[in-house]
Amino acid sequence: MGDAQQAIIRVHHEEWARVVAALTRRFGDLDIAEEAAAEAFAIAVERWPADGVPPNPGAWLTTTANRKAIDRIRRESKRDDKHKEAQIMYDDEPPEPLGAIDDDRLRLIFTCCHPALSLETRVALTLRMVGGLTMPEIARAFLVQESAMGQRITRAKAKIKAARIPYRVPSAEDLPTRVSGVLSVLFLVFNEGYLATGPDTDPVRHELTAEAIRLTRLIRALMPDDGEVAGLLALMLLTEARRPARVSVSGELVSLDEQDRGAWDAALIAEGHQLVRERLAAGVAPGRYQILAAINAVHTSVRDIRDTDWSQIVALYDQLIRIDPSPIVALNRAIAVAELDGPEVSLAAVDRLDDKLAGYHAYHATRADLLRRLCRSEEARAAYDKAIELAGNTAETAHLTRRRDQLG
Question: RNA polymerase sigma factor 70 region 4 type domain: which residues (predicted)?
């Protein structure tokens, strides 16, 4: 019983996207694909413990799901649709124009991440259709009621159908732009897990970071030559490696300079560094995720923060800001500048961002830390108060409160 259950969990991770994608390609309907795949896995849960795990679980699930989909079409079809129904069920599929890469799972990912959908909807739909997360799991990720999340995903599938959003990989010329959108979705999932925004959830949510990494690995396997896919995977791995040291036993966020580096995951760091080295060796101008991964590689390459090569980090931020001149990148660059040129120089750079980041808790937290280092305690206290007011993460709030309360 236990072995079969473990096999089902493993096969669900490995085969869900493949089964849903194959059904979507055949029947052209996300609703039918999702429901039939779920029914096939439910039958597996019932039968496999008694009958044993089949030699090819993916093929068994796909066959079972196909039968369930056909049963549903038969139930729903009207008499005058019988000819069309027969074609769907028995005719060979007509050849479809291929994209730059032809894989059913990629088709599914690009459909779920289509720019016609809102970013939040893309995230939810990707977690459901590609990741196989249940509705309650996705609802918890968004901190909304399960019924509301179900309605959101239902509307998204209806929009895909009504707008005739094509189930295909984009053409070669459109692929770079569309891949960027897919990576944005996966990065958003990862960030919500790495530092949860809501106060009523765990401060670090491993199930979301693990799912983001798993889906990015899938994209990496399907698009091994894409530098930004490799860069995002490296960035996630190097960030995830620090997770065991990020929250104290008392539930407080532990800043990078205070973390026990011996608790970092050495295997994830080694894999992340290898990906960064591979991208450097490729000799191609790096994109945003590759530069962020390189910055994290510098951070994770030393056992003592005092040995950090801050000049290299600032240089990497200089490179990043040329392709992503956002105020958040400028803020992170200023944090590195504080280690190189001192807190006063850094504070001047941070203060120039006030009009752009006044509602961002990390801006006020950074100002508070710099003012504390400059012994400007009253100003630091006010900045900590503002950061605490804006921060939603419970571990981060605890960290900021302790720092504020330590002021003289």
Answer: 109-160
Q: How far apart are CA 324 and CA 329, in angstroms?
A: 7
Determine the number of helices (DSSP H) and then strands (DSSP E) in the chain.
20, 0
Token pair 């104290």 is found at 248
Q: What is the pLDDT of residues 370-389, one digit of tens each?
A: 999 999 999 999 999 999 99
In the numeric block, which tokens belong to residue 177? Answer: 């732009």
Between helix 57-76 and helix 82-90 the angle, nearest 10°, is: 170
Spatial distance between the Cα atoms of 367 and 355, rounded to a whole number of angstroms: 14
CATH number for domain 309-408, candidates 1.10.540.10, 2.160.20.10, 1.25.40.10, 1.10.760.10: 1.25.40.10
State how far Cα 167 lies from the chain centre. 22
CA distance 295 to 283: 17
Q: Which residue has the tokens 């990862």?
A: 190
Burial class (CB in 10 A: 0-12, 13-18, 19+), 36: buried
| Whether 264 contacts 300, CB under 8 Å | yes
CA-to-CA separations, 215 to 220, 241, 302, 344, in angstroms, rounded:
9, 17, 29, 42
Q: What CATH architecture is 2-90? A: Orthogonal Bundle (1.10)
Q: How many CB atoms lie within 10 A of CB 37?
A: 29
Q: What is the pLDDT of residues 51-108, one digit of tens each?
A: 888 989 889 999 999 999 998 888 877 544 544 554 454 444 433 443 444 578 888 8
User: In this structure, what are the phi and psi dihedrals at residue 17, rounded to the nearest 5 degrees?
Assistant: -60, -40
Residue 16 C-alpha from the chain's centroid: 18
If you average pLDDT over residues 249-267, what whole number do you get? 93
SS3 116: coil
The tokens for 48 are 């496999």
CB 231 within 8 A of CB 245: no
Mean pLDDT in residue range 129-140 = 81
**Domain definitions of the chain by residue range:** 2-90, 102-203, 309-408
Residues 6+ apart with CB under 8 A from 151: none
The whole model's pTM is what?
0.78
